[in-house]
Amino acid sequence: MCFTVTMTRPVDRGLATGDFDAVYRRELPAMIALATTMTGDREVGTDIAHEGMVRMYRDWTRISGLERPGAWLRRVVINLAIDAGRQRAREARAMHRLDAQRDPVEAEPMSEPFWRAVRELPERQRAAVALHYLDDMSVAGIADVLGVTVGTIKTSLFKARRSLAVTLGAEEVDG
Q: pLDDT tens digit string along 132-144?
């Protein structure tokens, strides 16, 4: 008697180990946009997006088995962007303490007043706005990525919109 043993592994939405290239091509532009929005710097945003992809690649065997590997990647990119912002703030404080002069010619990577105002929001609000408006994610999807409740995201988006309306001089709409 001959038995055939077939080994199968759980398939995550059709993702297999070799599908990293497809995920990379599909997700990289969105990750660059997300990181650029979070940091305000296209070059830093690109570096962060690539770092997120490297981290995903290094652990692809495990990550490809997750229910939503894209959510994992977004969380990593958001964390890296937040870390980059903190690092930049520490460097600025150090430069100020040393009384060093800053380069007077700093190009603004994104000239839109809206995105400048978004970068001034608290971290969670900034992440929620970026995911909602850049990645077109639902409130539930954002909550999943950030690891918080739907109510927290609704509150974050409400507060972000209110702050942006005040900052940009728009009239607040009741509702």
A: 988 889 999 999 9
Domain assignments of the chain as residue spans, ordered by start: 18-102, 110-175
Residues whose CB falls within 8 Å of the CB of residue 95, separated by 6 or more in sequence, listed in order: 102
Which 8-state DSSP code applies to residue 120?
T
What's the CATH code, domain 110-175? Answer: 1.10.10.10
Q: Convert the pLDDT of each residue in 52-87 to its tens digit.
A: 999 999 999 999 999 989 999 999 999 999 999 888
pLDDT of residue 88 exceeding 90, the answer is no
Map residue 134 onto helix, strand or coil. coil
Q: What is the pLDDT of residue 169?
A: 79
User: How is domain 18-102 classified at the architecture level of CATH?
Assistant: Orthogonal Bundle (1.10)
> Using CB atoms within 10 A of its CB, is residue 44 exposed (0-12), middle (13-18) or buried (19+)?
buried
